Amino acid sequence: MMKNLQENSRVLVVGAGGLGCDLLKNLALSGFQDIYLIDLDTIDISNLNRQFLFRKTDIGKPKAQVAADFIMKRCPSVKVKWFQKKIQEFSPKWYKDFDVVVAGLDNVEARRWLNRTLNELVEFDEDGDPIFETIIPLIDGGTEGFRGQSRVFYPKISSCFECSLDSMPPGNHYHLCTIANVPRIPQHCIQYVYEIMWPLLEEFNSVDDYKLYEQKDGDDYVPAKVKLDKDDAQHMSWIYQRSLERAKQFGIEGVTYKLTMQVVKNIIPAIASTNAIVAAQCTMEAVKCVTFCSMILNNFMQYNGVNLAGCLLHEYEKKPNCSVCQPPAVVRMQSSDKVSALLALLESDKYGFEQPSLTGNDKVVYIATLHSAYEGNLDKPLSDFFEHSKLIQVSDKNKKSNSCLLIFEDQMMDEADDE
User: Fold this and answer.
1) What's the half-sphere exposure (Cβ side, CA atoms, 13 Å) at 88?
2) pTM
3) Pair 372, 412: CB distance under 8 Å
């Protein structure tokens, strides 16, 4: 089991931040020797309090490079190949080479993209069942303050990230009328200075030497003449000082420089102990996914260090109408059948699409609303565009979207004759 883990398992780690540093350390010490790492960011001084693979001399360097070098120096048998790129810059087929993907991402859109990509890599047999060898497990970890979670997704088998999207809490948002007229908390004062006062700056020399545009009745919005640099200490100090003044005006306490940074930069508080707990859980699941040494998490673990020092387990069920992980509809045709025949079948009661559009092999075959542009494809055989036992994407005017597994029955017979 350990030999297979060390010699035959390739793991992809996405993110080398607070959670990513712990993940890399744990995976290397657990026996993974072939690790790939993707992270777009460079090291900032604010990272050093919890991202322990970095030092002060590393500031400004790529996180992925420094983290990879640190791990390989500490664990000589481990090879870490690093990339300072967006995950979207890699071809979906590139992800096929991994046995498991472990993500420590800090934004929803990247998670959604990775989740969709791994689901689209799954291949199916002629009965429409997923081929297990093409399934790449996705282990997703996340932390916020004293809370964290880890999730295990088996593409096309379990629920996916998209299925749980509705349960995610909305981000902090303050109504403009509240922050302008009746501020009640320190964040309201900071947001007022950030959103309303800074755009009125005509001249900025220092925290106390500046000029604000004086608005008159009937004035339209005046665009900012001073560009805000959120990494400039003078700019952030100006916002902090003006926020203090506004808070004093309304009798509000609690405005600090640290809070100002959190509001303006939308910083999510990170705590090293939470990262360690969630990374340990994610690593354990990665080992189980590769070795099958124990039952795999099904499929959500939530850590709560605020109200209780413990973990809650929960199973997210598949959403019946999930556009990412729902099983494909099996469509059986002859390879010589025309594209128009496939469209007619998809519009039948069996499949229920209205004015369907087709995409396959990363090429658009037909778009109903652009009929004249794609009319020439309608009389061509399906084999010109599609392959046997491959997924095609179908969508219609009602925004219904689904993957369909296209089976060429004549090629099934040819394969049987060859055997």
Assistant:
1) 6
2) 0.75
3) no
* β-bridge partners, 329: 404
Q: Strand 100-103 relative to strand 10-14: parallel, antiparallel, unpaired?
A: parallel
The reply to whether omega before 49 is within 30° of 0 (cis) is no
User: What one-letter code names the amino acid at 247?
Assistant: A
**pLDDT tops 70 at residue 343:** yes
User: What is the H or E stretch that residue 301 is in?
Assistant: strand 300-304
Are β-strands 300-304 and 329-333 bridged in parallel, bridged antiparallel, or unpaired? unpaired
> Per-residue pLDDT for 223 more than 90?
no
Please classify residue 112 by burial: count the beta carbons closer than 10 Å to its beta carbon, then call 0-12 exposed, 13-18 middle and 19+ buried: middle
> What pLDDT is recorded for position 169?
64
**177, 183, 308, 402 from 317: Cα distances, Å:** 40, 41, 25, 19
Residue 43: strand, helix, or coil:
coil
Q: Torsion angle of alpha carbons 333, 337, 343, 347, nearest 10°?
A: -50
Determine the Cα angle at 150 with ends 130 and 318, to 5°: 40
Beta bridge partners of 312: 302
C-alpha–C-alpha distance, residues 274 and 303, integer Å: 8
Written as six digits, the tokens of 15 are 């993110």
| Cα–Cα distance measured from residue 77 to residue 71, given in angstroms and rounded to the nearest whole number | 10
Residue 282: active-site member = no
21, 160, 177, 282: the catalytic one is: 177
So what's the pLDDT on residue 389? 83
Which tokens hold the place of 21?
Answer: 């540093």
Pairing of strands 201-204, 363-366: unpaired
| Beta-sheet pairing, 34-38 with 10-14 | parallel
What sections of 31-152 are H helices per DSSP? Answer: 63-74, 108-120
- Specify the DSSP element, H or E, that contains 95: none
**Average pLDDT in the chain:** 89
Structure tokens, 16: 């080398």
Burial classification of residue 66, based on how many CB atoms lie within 10 Å of its CB (0-12 exposed, 13-18 middle, 19 or more buried):
buried
| CA atoms within a 13 Å half-sphere pointing along the CA-CB vector of 403 | 22
- Count Cα neighbours of 209 within 13 Å in the Cβ-side half-sphere: 2
Confidence of residue 139 (pLDDT cuts 50, 70, 90): very high
